[in-house]
Structure formats: structure tokens, C-alpha cells
Records
---
Amino acid sequence: LDYADYVGDAPERITATLWVCRACHNQIHRLFSEKELALTYNSREALLADERLRTFVAWLASKPAGFTPRF
């Protein structure tokens, strides 16, 4: 997550990294804008608080290892 937040005249950079599989990464970006990720969904707990993402993760976890969703 990388988003520039301007406080006064000086930009303050907010950065965080959460390692997820490609399928989850793609789903996260389908659901949330970069701004939402930076300001609201900036932790694992915050992401999983969203029912849409939680449902996707549960669905993906029920698939065999190596399964790749086709979107």
C-alpha cells in the first residue's frame, strides 16, 4: 500500500506491505481503491473485517492447493 497524504505543504508517505497470494491481491484491488487501502484497509485485520473479502478468502481456502481462480 502506498499513498501520499498531504499535511500542510509537506507530503507524508504512508507505506505498508502485506504479503498475500496473487488471487487475494487481485481481489483486494477489485474491491478497494488505493486511497481506501491506505486510509481504511491498511492492516490484515481491517481487510478481513470486510465481509466480501472474508467470503472470497473462505471460498479460496476450500479449493485444492495450486488452484487459480479465473476472473
---
Amino acid sequence: LSVLEAASSALAEDGGLIGQDERDSIDRAMSALNGALAEGSTASAAGLRALTDALVKATDHFAAVRMNVGI
């Protein structure tokens, strides 16, 4: 399961747990990574890593909220 797939699935399932600003931030990070992946071989490995890290950072709070709800 890729980071993009995991984030998309989590948002579909529990997106209502976060506010619109946080959702927008996650959506922007997902869009940026999707765009870079669509470029194929022209995207550098370092650039893809940075975009992946940005998505992980954007979803940190959301992941914590989901875990707290599950407890």
C-alpha cells in the first residue's frame, strides 16, 4: 500500500475527523506527489522523497486523531 493510497483510504474513511484546513493541506500534498509521479522519469528521487515526506508530515496529526478514536 503506497503512502498515497493509504492517505486516500484514510480520508475516505475518517476524513470527517479533521477540519477543512487540515484536509486542504493533505489534499495539496497528495496532489503535489501525484503530479510528480505523473511526470515519470523526469522526477528526481530526491524530489519524490521530499514530496513523500511532506505528505507524511501533513498527515501526522490526522493519523494521531484516527488512533485516538480507535482507542
---
Amino acid sequence: LQDVLSHLSINPAVFARLDRGDAYAAARSKCLRRANAHECLTWLAASGQTGDAPPEFCPNLETFERCLHKD
């Protein structure tokens, strides 16, 4: 999760405060279930620049989009 946040240039403090921490807990849980782990790791390795848009397959897509460009 931290690698994805960094790659998307999402401020971890903003993400942690979203929905009083519930969004972080839910996103972390989805990542730990590893439903899309292979796709996620492939995406991280293939996209060379930070600031990319979240991938469409990500179960946390909507949550990440809520945080983009918030500070």
C-alpha cells in the first residue's frame, strides 16, 4: 500500500485521515487480501514515473482518486 501511495504521489497523512482512518484500514485490508497482487506488482514495475493515475483493476481505485491532489 505504501508503495502505491508513493507512486501515485498521494500524501500519506491525508490518506490516513480520510474518513477518520477508516479508508486507510479498508484499503490496507484489500491489499493484504492480495486479490490483485500480481497485477499490482506488475503495474508498479512497469510504470516508471510517479504521479500516474491509479490502475483500473485496483480495488482501492475510488479511495485513491479521492486523495489525489489533496493536501
